[in-house]
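Hi P.,

Sorry for the delay on this. The queue was packed all week, but I finally got your sequence through. Input first:
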Amino acid sequence: MERLDAYLERLASDAPAPGGGSAATLVAALGAALTAMTARIALHNPKPADSAAALREIVARSDELRAELRAAGEHDERAFARVISAQALPKSTPAETQARREALEFALERAAEAPLRGTALCLKVLEITSQLLEFRTNALISDIGCAAEFAAAAIASCAYNVRVNHKYMKDAETVARQEERLRLHEAEARRLLERVRAEVDRALTV
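Then the structure:
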């Protein structure tokens, strides 16, 4: 796996990839790392006392999600690279123009699908963050809040990258199908984020 400093150097360069979709998955991976940390610390003195098994499950799932999100970032980069390649195809004849159009449409669909799948992974981080509220981890409530905000920001960022590809796609049916899935993810993310924010605010109110 690429080191963080090296990734940030690539992100800061004038290359078109990595971009926002890939960066979003990194933000969500930070959220997953925080949920794993919170659950691991809670395991030292689980409250309620019979919650150790549930906390271990959160640790395992958080670690899995962190790896899946890093892989999703790489997938997003590859998907966008295919769009760049399709845009570079020749279009000097009608046949070349048609072939380029078909290749570009295919690449754009995949480039929209990559961050859409990213929203599903980010949503799982939010779900785990919400589950952590069931345990008495008040000393770590700020970390739970940060994990939720990271995951929610990543969903919003992935959504931008889905819709920017939709702007150039011609297949209205595919756009509508992807948009429907995206809206469902966004709605559930808002619900979970509101719950976490309410609990964090309550815990931090002096």
